[in-house]
Amino acid sequence: MASELIHRNQTTPQSSPNISPGTPSSPVRNWKTPFRYVAQKQRFFFVLVGIAIAALFFNSFPVSTSSLFQELSGGGGGSGLIAGSVSGLGAESSEVTRRVLYEAYTEGFRGRNVAATGKVPLGLKKKNLRIVVTGGAGFVGSHLVDRLIARGDSVIVVDNFFTGRKENLMHHFGNPKFELIRHDVVEPILLEVDQIYHLACPASPVHYKFNPVKTIKTNVVGTLNMLGLAKRVGARFLLTSTSEVYGDPLQHPQVETYWGNVNPIGVRSCYDEGKRTAETLTMDYHRSLGIEVRIARIFNTYGPRMCIDDGRVVSNFVAQALRKEPMTVYGDGKQTRSFQYVSDLVEGLIRLMEGDHVGPFNLGNPGEFTMLELAEVVQEAIDPNAKIEFRPNTEDDPHKRKPDISKAKQLLGWEPTISLRKGLPLMVSDFRQRIFGTPKTLIGGGATA
């Protein structure tokens, strides 16, 4: 019984009939056993062997740098000299060669003024720029588009046509350098551009009081969206702010360092405080994220393509005089304003964008007129018999407004060149044609618009 249990539970080793216990193993089996073991149990060993082989190969056969030499020699800014000096180092030290090539490559790009923030070397640009103008179908925006396209840049206009008009841009339709997008800047948009002129916002009391919530959203959310676009694509950003940030000023004339006297809960605050917030956002993006920004504070501007009934004093007076209606003067007519022609403003905006200074900069004509004096100039240009009608003044209307443009003169080399008596007839000609449909003619000795 015991032998039967042993037989069932134990396996008796069976010796090979051909190999005796004292006979050595076959040599073939002896050399195969270690490699089989390594292959099965020591796979990491082969990883190390592979790394060693790869290192030996790349040290023996360095990577070709001919394409890098071609890039450096073909570029501007002295890159060819860098490539030539690198090629003379010799092939005996590939490690040193690769290190020097890397340094030369990065230096070559620095020589081309390509910065991480996308700064465009405007003074030495070799290609036309791609520029977006928000609010480009408006009065000032359309004149800016004209200038940019005339110098050869490609322009994308973004406008929701709340106050802008397609008629202001029709002469560019069909131009391959011009694009028009119907879009509200309150919603984000992604475009590949070099510069952003952010003009989008209703600028007249009639328009921004009509929808004050929309106005402040355009100033705040719209500016945030455009600054975000500038950050994503590395574009330079210009904000068109306003002299309204000074409110009803206690300082006269107003300099850029003056902080203003603004009613934060008044009927004009949607525009005044909205632009002040837009300036804050612009400077915060500049300081914290390194975005290239420019800020212009625009004073009263007039010229062709102004909205005829937008409530601004120049357009009101001109339209009323042409229609043989009394010119409405609010208050006693002794409040003052400064008026610049639109082409002067456009020149200032372009100089600011292409300059090296952030701002803010006052852009306006320091020539100061009372409302009564302005009415007299309109009478001279249109109808000496035009009547003047006085009405109660509007709420929060500033009593004095005159820019100090010393900073713009010194740093931008800019100052207005067209006086009110010279520029107003150009506007009158445009208004006459739009109101009555008559051809533009010489009015009051001025040229056609």
TrEMBL record:
Source domain of life: Eukaryota
Listed EC numbers: 4.1.1.35
Compartmental location: Golgi apparatus, Golgi stack membrane
Sequence intervals crossing the membrane: 44-63
Gene3D superfamilies hit by this protein: NAD(P)-binding Rossmann-like Domain (3.40.50.720)
Residue stretches making up the NAD(P)-binding domain: 133-425
Stretches with biased composition (Polar residues): 8-27
UniProt cross-references to Pfam families, sorted A to Z: GDP_Man_Dehyd (PF16363)
Record membrane topology: Single-pass type II membrane protein
GO molecular function, one term: UDP-glucuronate decarboxylase activity
A Gene Ontology BP annotation from the UniProt entry: UDP-D-xylose biosynthetic process
Known cofactor(s): NAD(+)
InterPro entries with a match to the protein in the record: NAD(P)-bd_dom (IPR016040), NAD(P)-bd_dom_sf (IPR036291), UXS-like (IPR044516)
Family designation: Belongs to the NAD(P)-dependent epimerase/dehydratase family. UDP-glucuronic acid decarboxylase subfamily.
Protein name: UDP-glucuronate decarboxylase
UniProt organism field: Gossypium hirsutum
Gene: LOC107933206
